[in-house]
Amino acid sequence: MTNESIFLEHVGDSPRMRILQYLIEGRDFDYTLTDMLNAGVSWGTLNSLVPKLEKLGIVVKVRKIGRATLYKISRQNETAKQLIALYDKLILQSLDEHEQKAEIPVRHGKKAV
Fold first, then answer.
1. Which of 23, 32, 79, 101 shows the greatest Cβ crowding within 10 Å of its Cβ?
2. Cβ atoms within 10 A of the Cβ of 82, count?
3. Is the pLDDT score of 2 beyond 60?
4. How far apart are CA 13 and CA 18, in angstroms?
C-alpha cells in the first residue's frame, strides 16, 4: 500500500487496523477470510486476528456458506460504533478540505474566470 489512508494515518497502520478499515468500508456486506486478504494482511495474521476481534465483539459471524464463514463489523458493539464514526468523520473532513482547495478564487465579489 503506497498511499496510506486517512484512517490509518490517524489510528496507525497495523494489520488489525487494516482489517477493521476493510470491514468498516464494506460495513453493509459480509466477508470470508479469503475476501479479507484484500485488506493487505497475511493469511496467518488474519487467522489469528479475526478470532480476537470476534471475542471482543467487534467482528461477528454472520452466516456460513458451505465451509466458508462470513464475517462483518458489529454495528451493536460500542468500540465498533466509535471506529465507524471516526472513519466517517475523517473521510468527511478530507472531502471538505479537498472541496475547499478546488474552489475557484473569488476576485472583487465575482468568481475568477
1. 23
2. 10
3. no
4. 7
For domain 7-99, the question of CATH label 1.10.260.40 is answered with no
Rounded to whole angstroms, the Cα distance separating 113 from 107 reads: 10
Give the domain ranges of the chain. Answer: 7-99
DSSP states of 59-79: EEEEEEETTEEEEEE-SSSHH
Judge whether 90 and 7 are in contact, CB under 8 Å. Answer: yes
Identify the band that residue 27 occupies on the pLDDT scale cut at 50, 70 and 90: very high
Cβ atoms of 60 and 54 closer than 8 Å: yes
Phi and psi at residue 9, to the nearest 5°: -65, -35
Cα–Cα nearest to 74, from 63, 62, 86, 66: 62
How many helices (H) and strands (E) in the chain? 5, 4
Instruction: Print the SS3 string covering 79-97.
Output: HHHHHHHHHHHHHHHHHHH
